Every structure is written in C-alpha cells, then in structure tokens.
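During the no-cost extension, the postdoctoral fellow (Dr. R.K.) reprocessed legacy sequence entries with the updated structure-token encoder. One reprocessed record is reproduced below for audit purposes.
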Amino acid sequence: LMMAGSVITVIPVMLVFLFLQRYYIQGVMAGSVKG
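Re-encoded structure tokens follow.
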C-alpha cells in the first residue's frame, strides 16, 4: 500500500521533471546558438 502511494506521488514529479528538463535543454541550445 505504501509502495502504491509512493509511486502515485513520484509519477507526476517525474513527468514535471522531464518536461522542465526538455524545455531547459531547448532554451540552452537556443541560447548557445544565438551566442
């Protein structure tokens, strides 16, 4: 039961992290290209 609760808590965090990571990398790449 604890395992399921932790999984439900971790999944949205992982999704947000992956989304931010992709967005951040795109911003860095665009910035380096402009620079």
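The chain has one domain: 1-34. Residues 22 and 33 are 16 Å apart (CA to CA). The remaining legacy entries will be reprocessed before the final report is submitted.
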